[in-house]
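In the current project phase, work has continued on tokenised descriptions of protein folds. One protein thus recorded appears below exactly as we store it.

——
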Amino acid sequence: MDLLNMVLNAGNGGSVKQLASNFGLDENQATAAISNLLPVLGQGLARNASKPDGLDSIMRALSSGNHSQYIDNLNTLGDENTVRDGNGILGHILGSKDVSRQVTSGYMT
């Protein structure tokens, strides 16, 4: 299974439903936004991995928290702590959380 399908099927598809609900999107819009964001995340990871200590830095950021809890409890996706953790990870991977917003901005209502 590829990464996109893993994300889309997380929580038996509940993660997409919850994200759609949190952002006022329908499921097709949420799926399209995720589909467009994943390649950008992959590029960010590749860029970071090519820098000295870049991959180690991301691995430390990812391992410093219990990020799987957000998939285990989808109701927390809109919580302030979840958003803060997500923005922190996006900052590590993309250089700024705002890059993800630019990629997905066409899907917000």
